Amino acid sequence: MKCSLGLEKCPDDTLRCFPKIEQPFGIVIFGASGDLTKRKLIPALNRLFEAGILPDRFFVLGAARTNMDDEEFRSRFEAHPDFLRHCSYISVDYHNPESFKSLKNTIETLMKRIDSNNLVFYLAVPPDLYIPILENLSKSGLNEKPARVVIEKPFGKDLESARRLEETLKKYFQEDQIFRIDHYLGKETVQNILVFRFANFIFEEIWNNKFVDHVQITMAEDIGVEHRAGYFENVGLLRDIFQNHMLQVLALIAMEPPSSFNGENFRNERVKLLRSIRPLPVKELENWIVRGQYGRGVVNGKEVPAYREEPGVDEDSNVETFVAMKLFIDNWRWSGVPFYLRAGKRLPRKITEVAVVFKKIPHSIFAGVPSDELEPNTIVFTLQPNEGISLEFQVKRPCPGMFPQLLSMDFRYEDYFGVKLPDAYERLLLDVILGDPTLFMRRDDLEVSWELLDPVLKAWENDPIRFSPHVYPAGTWGPREADLLIERDGRKWRKL
């Protein structure tokens, strides 16, 4: 079978399967002196360049408050010398309209040089800078089509602030110019959920409440807040992970098939699924959601401090570093099927997986093996690390009797394809440049996710004693209350 480019097999470097950008373009990165630019954006653009995907004519203009020249800017990155020749820098005061006039003059000069109007603005800055940057882009006339703007999470701090941000975006840019990025949607393994579901009829036919007992999604990190204490103190894990990554993955697992894989059809079904999630009952919130914070403990053989002992964290902080939640989806496909979600920091290992756990057999025909002792079939999507898919099923153990034994049939990307998967930002930056919105969030995406979580955040804020996070030792799988959340339903978290 040929790939989408007509090749019999994918090249060793999967980026070679990406479409080449024919039209010259320019990208302006606000926050160019920051961590995201250094760790993700420039390396991703450099990889696209080295793979021959970028056109001959393009520019990358870094913009930030730091004073430096082009050479100093280029020296910050490990990248191909020919790529760096396309990079330059300008110092910008985000709150000063005069500064944006200078920025506009620089951009116009660069655009004439590449003879193109294909322009992208990437806001790799803290959220409180979004609005002044957007306003000044408009005042300087830089918001006119076909210019596009990319914003990173968090998209607001609650429903009200998210709506304020959206009103500002709507005031200065049209919806087809706005690209709200959630890098999880750029991951190959996340996109593979869609292929697995909608290209394999055998599985899609059992993807419903007749066969599925429950679904577990785990997003675990073994690190703490690291250098992000200031950010995390203002955000917390519910906003940082659940409002975007977690709910987007849930939507891909549970959504109905779109009529085609294009921007609007795909996003319509995703939003329709999110709207079907049952609101959490605030009066009995403890039965539906668990809030935790890591204490001292041992991770990977090393003693680590408690969250409140981390540099930059308030010694009386009530910010959560762990959340477990039970949700129901009120539609025909999923009615009655619980979705158990958990995410946290300073857990035993880094892993992100989705487990679709099927119902147990109704009756065992094997003597001495009751049906409740037979582990159910499970399909596991491992999103990181060791990306792949596993199918767990029962087989006969080699012995005279009829004794079933659970085994796992595993597919691993690296073992089968023998390639390094592209970074999510490589795919998403390519889509931005090409103007493809499919893997980006729409305004209603954001609103429906905030509508679900906003009552939880308000309840936590209004009653901090009642909802004070349960402390769990670093290096464990969260507080005991998270185990009780699922055990009360006669189930248990998977051993990871």
Automatic annotation (TrEMBL):
Domain Glucose-6-phosphate dehydrogenase NAD-binding stretches: 28-192
One term under GO cellular component: cytosol
Pfam families xref list: G6PD_C, G6PD_N
Keywords of this entry: Carbohydrate metabolism, Glucose metabolism, NADP, Oxidoreductase
Example GO biological process: pentose-phosphate shunt, oxidative branch
Active site per database record: 245 (proton acceptor)
Associated pathway: Carbohydrate degradation; pentose phosphate pathway; D-ribulose 5-phosphate from D-glucose 6-phosphate (oxidative stage): step 1/3
Protein's UniProt keywords contain Oxidoreductase: yes
InterPro entries tied to this protein: G6P_DH, G6P_DH_AS, G6P_DH_C, G6P_DH_NAD-bd, NAD(P)-bd_dom_sf
EC number(s) from the headed UniProt entry: 1.1.1.49
Domain of life where this protein originates: Bacteria
Annotated ranges, domain Glucose-6-phosphate dehydrogenase C-terminal: 194-494
EC category: oxidoreductase
GO molecular function, one term: NADP binding
Ligand binding (substrate): 183, 187, 221, 240, 345, 350
Reaction catalysed by this enzyme: D-glucose 6-phosphate + NADP(+) = 6-phospho-D-glucono-1,5-lactone + NADPH + H(+)
Residue numbers binding NADP(+): 31-38, 65, 153
Alphabetical list of NCBIfam families matching this protein: zwf
Described function: Catalyzes the oxidation of glucose 6-phosphate to 6-phosphogluconolactone.
Family according to the record: Belongs to the glucose-6-phosphate dehydrogenase family.
Listed name of the protein: Glucose-6-phosphate 1-dehydrogenase
